[in-house]
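Final report, closing paragraph on structural work. Over the funding period we assembled a curated collection of sequence-structure pairs, and we close with a single example.
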Amino acid sequence: MAGSSPAKGIELSYLQLAFYILCATVVLGSALALPYLRVTARRLPWPIRLVHGVFGAAGLVVLLWALYRGLPASAMGTAGFGPASAVFVGLALILGFAILLFRVRPPGVLVAFHAGLAIAGFVVLWTVLSLG
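Its predicted structure, as stored:
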């Protein structure tokens, strides 16, 4: 049809956009975490780490924007899950900046806490989308 765009009819909320951005961040983070399973492995190149951090920050910004605009009402009791997800992702971002400060391989405990907070934020956001 003339004048119709391929994206017509696709409605994407800011909350869904934040989820998709954080999905990409999780995939990159998983690739970055693989060398920590072996003691002798080296860190992956800095551009991958930089893209991971930029995606994480962008996902947090979009999530905060979605929370600012207001979440749809839910009868499932998930009203506080959106802000909780933002707190977890924000803390993971702060730890990510701390990991960035290490010139050599950072301690595995710091990476584990970063990953744990990020996974918690991601799962809570997934719950909001699934039940909300």
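The CA atoms of residues 60 and 86 lie 7 Å apart. The radius of gyration is 17 Å. We thank the funder for supporting this effort.
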